[in-house]
Design goal:
Blueprint: H1 2-11, H2 13-22, E1 25-28, H3 36-46, E2 53-56, H4 73-81, E3 93-94, H5 99-109, E4 128-129, E5 142-148, H6 149-165, E6 173-177, H7 180-192, E7 197-204, H8 209-225, H9 234-240, H10 250-263, H11 267-276, H12 289-304, H13 310-320, H14 323-329, H15 333-353, H16 359-371, E8 377-382, E9 388-392, H17 393-396, E10 401-406, H18 437-449, E11 452-463, H19 474-480, E12 487-488, H20 494-508, H21 519-527, H22 532-540, H23 542-550, H24 559-580, H25 588-601, H26 608-629, E13 637-648, E14 651-663, E15 666-673, H27 696-709, E16 716-724, E17 735-738, H28 742-760, H29 774-781, H30 788-798
Parallel strand pairs: 1-2, 3-4, 5-11, 5-12, 6-9, 6-10, 7-9, 10-11, 15-16
Antiparallel strand pairs: 7-8, 13-14, 14-15, 16-17
């Protein structure tokens, strides 16, 4: 709106003049928060007058919204432009805080140079406590040092609990912090103690579990409708069927997926065939009725993609999948409906801007947002305003509380916080070149301090969650520099710690799914041989092994896997040609033709754009790879070698090796890799403090040596080499070689035998519990987790 007004004024001088004459008196409040656009509008309106009658109110020390375009230099420029006629009044009486709080706040903010008191001669700004109700209170603020962040949170929650029990209204208490993530963890602690909490935070809708499920469905509809890649969304379909709103038992989906894997057909095709097929007799198994309903709904939605606008299609998704009914009947009805409404409004806005947008374009738009860190924001409000306030510093501006716990004052949350990959930032040309980020942060810290009326507790921890030592913020040091400042080191009692540990552990248990002894799992285990992929999956998360290696969820070939397969095929054909033509390698055109043949044969795995891009990329990297290595390649090789029925530590094992290079009976195993070589640095490391199980590539190298050495082939592996077919960022090709030690062999053999024993014991129904684990989050999001007591009962029942 403001931009429209400015454009109208710029294009119509008469219109601007009329408004200038009309607004003879102008008042600007919260001037420190005005953006460049707002400031430009003020300039336009007052430029008519030689001596404008304008009244500006602002506090330069509280200019903290630079990320929204607000700029402290607006105030400084205003003061400079009108310095001859400017009457400056400094309001020094403070009716919020006690004098000790004002004094330490001044001590901090005085370190800033970007202040009007430093720009206007003779100006001073010494705040004086003037609230007669609290002026007599001389309580000094406290700085508290905790061992860990968890100890900090526990102590704050217990302190708040004590205040409330002593009669302090919860609404008079606030916990203020820099990061939303800190607030989320803190909110969980308050919930564990059943304390009333009010929180207001910005969330990214794209990260919300419910919207995430909806986005997965939208992506599936786009891919299922895409005629270029039919039946290519089975893995998405498997996850979509678990959405809570469908109400389908997980075992019904698992059974269908297992049958699909055995029959080697598409999950979507199998679902539709079984949904429409009548049972042959009374003993034939019916498809679960909710699976039938979901199949019908999804097929109808796929058909509707071409015939409906995106808005209309979204309404059908809400209605026909049962999503809207599910939200209406949910205990958190308001929260779910708020999220669905916000997403629908976003879609409406996007389609209004681009009326011809189709579903594929919407998906592309959402992907670009996620790839570039652009959030879809929603302000989430929890609890009533009379509860304990949990607020970010930005969210606390303008508010005041009797008791303020200013938490998380560590450097990694403040001056050392990384802002990489956090979306777009304003170009430097839009802001003053000498704008100081540290001073902006100091103003933010100052705002937090001045929210307190009488009681202020500033805290930090000595160690981070990962056990590394943490530093207090530099602003803590500035508060203490040259002053006797009270410092407390609270120590939690054993009962306080154990109570919270018990409550926290209840919420941090790895997810466990229903233990079902189905015939197909027993059949799979009867024929199962350990391979390195299954081993890596299990060590990463038993649930991943369960879904990928036992249930064998549909894993359709996609752009990345098929491009990698095309590269592998071209390299295979390169060496087969050499073996069939007297150790002579073919020329580059023949090499590229092998790549082209495979790509065209599997054209259905790519969209039109993907196919064109990957073909072009292959024709760039393969000739360069050929030119670099063709004259140094070992010609005594075995290509695409399967090895099976080998026992490692008594465990039946198998593998498929890309290439074996021979020097007599000594072997160098070569494994081709597509992707960025820089991403392999951690994967190739043996066990260390950060990776106690070792990296996946290291384990793969050791596994291959054990496999070959324990076979009846009579060969001995001396090394495993990972050959990267794609160059790194410097356009250089790299090979990483691993030499396996006897200690490495012992470690991986132990991993194989331990994992085998756990698999045979059906110990794959409980996940790893890690926050970044896809399958643990999948189980939690779709509420497939069973209670811990039930999981224990099932474990005992299986013994």
């Amino acid at each position: 709106m403001i931009n429209w007004v400015i454009r109208a004024f710029s294009e119509n001088e008469e219109l601007l003049r009329r408004y200038q004459e009309k607004f003879q008196y102008i008042l600007v409040d919260e001037f420190q928060d005005t953006s460049g656009t707002q400031n430009k509008l003020v300039k336009l309106l007052i430029s008519f007058w030689d001596k404008p009658n304008v009244f500006v109110v602002g506090d330069d020390d509280q200019s903290i919204f630079r990320f929204q375009g607000a700029n402290i230099f607006n105030m400084e420029e205003f003061a400079h432009n009108y310095k001859k006629d400017l009457l400056t009044i400094v309001l020094t009486k403070n009716y919020r805080s006690t004098q000790p709080i004002l004094d330490i706040s001044k001590r901090l903010i005085s370190n800033n140079r970007e202040r009007l008191v430093n720009k206007i001669e003779g100006l001073t700004k010494d705040l004086v406590a003037a609230n007669s109700r609290i002026i007599h209170i001389n309580r000094q603020p406290l700085i508290r040092e905790y061992e860990t962040e968890k100890a900090e949170m526990i102590h704050i929650v217990n302190e708040v609990d004590s205040l409330i029990n002593a009669g302090t209204p919860p609404g008079k208490i606030a916990v203020i912090y820099r990061e939303n993530k800190y607030g989320e963890d803190l909110l969980n602690c308050f919930k564990l103690k059943n304390l009333p909490v009010y929180s207001k935070r910005n969330i990214n809708l794209l990260n919300d579990p419910l919207i995430g499920q909806l986005l997965l469905l939208i992506r599936y509809l786009a891919s299922a409708h895409e005629f270029e890649v039919p039946f290519n969304g089975d893995e998405m379909l498997f996850e979509i069927l678990h959405a809570e709103w469908f109400g389908i038992p997980a075992i019904a989906i698992a059974t269908l997926a297992a049958e699909t894997a055995e029959e080697k057909i598409s999950l979507r095709r199998a679902l539709n065939e079984k949904a429409t097929r009548a049972p042959r007799d009374l003993f034939s198994q019916y498809l679960h009725p909710k699976l039938v309903a979901a199949a019908n709904a999804l097929e109808h939605l796929i058909s509707a993609v071409s015939n409906h606008t995106i808005q209309s299609l979204l309404e059908q998704i809400f209605r026909e999948t049962g999503l809207l009914q599910f939200a209406m009947q949910h205990p958190e009805k308001r929260k779910l409906l708020e999220r669905l409404t916000a997403f629908f409004e976003f879609v409406k806005d996007e389609t209004r801007r681009q009326p011809d947008m189709d579903l594929q374009q919407l998906v592309l738009h959402l992907d670009l947002m996620e790839d570039n860190g652009i959030e879809l924001p929603l302000i989430e409000v929890n609890g009533s305003i009379d509860s304990v306030n949990l607020l970010t510093v930005h969210g606390s501006k303008g508010l005041e509380f009797t008791h303020v716990f200013f938490a998380g004052c560590n450097s990694h949350y403040w001056e050392k916080k990384s802002n990489r990959n956090k979306g777009f930032h304003f170009p430097d040309t839009l802001l003053q070149s000498d704008t100081n980020d540290d001073e902006e942060l100091r103003r933010l810290f100052y705002v937090a301090l001045t929210r307190a009326e009488t009681h202020l507790y500033i805290s930090y921890c000595r160690f981070m969650k990962n056990g590394k030592e943490a530093e207090p913020s530099v602003f803590i040091e500035e508060l203490r520099a040259g002053y006797e400042f009270p410092l407390e080191r609270p120590v939690l009692t054993e009962s306080e710690t154990s109570e919270f540990q018990f409550l926290l552990l209840q919420g941090e248990q790895p997810p466990a799914i229903e233990r079902v002894e189905m015939d197909f799992i027993d059949r799979v285990l009867e024929k199962f041989q350990m391979n390195v992929t299954a081993l890596n999956n299990y060590l990463k998360c038993p649930l991943e092994f369960y879904f990928r290696n036992l249930i064998r969820i549909p894993s359709p070939k996609n752009e990345n896997t098929e491009f990698g397969s095309a590269v592998h095929k071209a390299l295979e054909q390169l060496f087969r040609y050499m073996q069939e033509h007297e150790n002579r390698f073919p020329e580059i055109p023949w090499f590229l033709a092998s790549f082209d043949v495979y790509m065209k044969k599997h054209r259905e795995s790519f969209t039109k754009e993907q196919f064109a891009r990957r073909m072009e990329y292959g024709h760039i990297i393969l000739p360069a790879y050929y030119e670099k290595y063709i004259h140094s390649l070992n010609r005594i090789v075995s290509i695409e070698r399967p090895i099976s029925k080998v026992t490692i530590g008594g465990v039946p094992s198998k593998g498929f090796l890309d290439k074996l290079e021979f020097d007599g009976k000594q072997v160098n195993v070569v494994d081709y890799k597509t992707g960025n070589p820089d991403n392999a640095k951690q994967k190739i490391l043996s066990p260390n403090e950060k990776q106690p199980l070792g990296g996946d590539y290291w384990r793969q190298a050791v596994f291959y040596k054990l496999l070959v050495d324990n076979s009846s082939l009579g060969w001995q592996v001396i090394s495993t080499e990972f050959d990267f077919i794609e160059p790194d960022k410097k356009k250089e090709y790299r090979k990483l070689k691993v030499y396996v030690s006897p200690e490495d062999e012992a470690i991986v053999t132990r991993q194989i035998t331990d994992t085998w024993a756990r698999i045979q014991n059906h110990d794959f129904y409980t996940g790893c519990g890690k926050e970044d684990c896809h399958w643990c989050q999948f189980v939690k999001t779709n509420k497939l987790t069973i209670p811990e007591t039930l999981a224990e009962e099932e474990d005992h029942a299986s013994l």
